[in-house]
Design a protein that fits this description.
With 254 residues, this protein is α/β, with parallel strands linked by helices. The mean pLDDT is 94. The N and C termini lie close together (7 Å). The protein binds hypoxanthine (HPA).
């Protein structure tokens, strides 16, 4: 079964033929909300809104451990994350969709591992490729099949939030090699790797990063909403196309 974690602008999947919702509990606390189960192209999919229904949980307060644990324990065989980002790389613009291939983690103070406490083993996961290459390839193929133009690689800088960045911070992220900036990619990706579950992301560019282009004099939040309304549908089209291929799907509905 494929699990989808939706971010800002995607608190439900319009194309999901909903069957039921489940409240899942974990040893790490409660996930962001109930998990919605439904069918896309005859395959069962689980959906979780990262910020809760009604968008009430800020990026630094999301219980990433509970979210990834709950989806995995309930039978997810792969997780696709949908998240908005600001763009830094000059060829990107608001509305663009991309499949990132790398992460730089600037977050702090988040619960970022399942392996902690005095009982725990010391575990170092390999994180050279933070996104599952096989799932990334499937997303890129699904986008092509759906006629959605995507940038098939990007370095995603994950900042702590909830505030947006300063113009100087964006210049620094660019010097570090970042193409886009968001607040939720970590520790989500690392936790999925700790549980050995394939994880990849679809990023939708919501705005130019601070100090760049239209955001030269500040970020206009009213414009972001309009961009997401128009472009989130293309992220959903990629997921639909992925399900049409039957990737990670289970027609028996388990
Ligand atoms: N910065 C950080 N996170 C974001 C942005 C941004 O500009 N846009 C959407 N998420």
């Amino acid at each position: 079964m494929l699990a989808i974690i939706g971010g800002s602008g995607l608190s439900q999947l319009a194309t999901l033929d909903v069957s039921h919702r489940e409240v899942l509990r974990t040893p790490y606390g409660d996930p962001s909300g109930t998990v919605t189960f439904g069918q896309i192209h005859g395959h069962t999919v689980m959906f979780l809104a990262r910020h809760g229904y009604g968008h009430v949980i800020p990026p630094h307060e999301v219980n990433y451990r509970a979210n990834i644990w709950a989806l995995t324990q309930r039978g997810a065989r792969a997780i696709v994350s949908v998240a908005t980002v600001g763009c830094i790389r000059p060829d990107l613009k608001p509305g663009d969709v991309l499949i990132p291939h790398q992460i730089i983690d600037y977050t702090w103070g988040r619960k970022n591992t399942y392996h902690e406490g005095h009982d725990s083993r010391v575990v170092h996961i390999d994180f050279t490729d933070p996104y599952d290459p096989g799932l990334r390839a499937l997303l890129i193929k699904a986008a092509e099949a759906a006629g959605v133009v995507v940038s098939d690689s990007a370095v995603y800088a994950v900042t702590q939030g909830p505030r947006l960045e300063t113009a100087a911070e964006i210049n620094r992220l660019e010097r570090d090699g970042a193409d886009v900036v968001g607040m939720t990619g970590m520790p989500e990706a690392a936790l999925a790797r700790e549980l050995n579950i394939p994880y990849a992301a679809i990023n939708v560019v919501a705005n130019y990063a601070a100090g760049r282009a239209d955001s030269r004099n500040g970020i206009r939040f009213d414009a972001i909403e309009a961009v997401l309304e128009q472009s989130m549908g293309r992220a959903c089209a990629i997921i639909e196309s992925l399900m049409e291929e039957g990737a990670y799907g289970d027609p028996s509905g388990s």
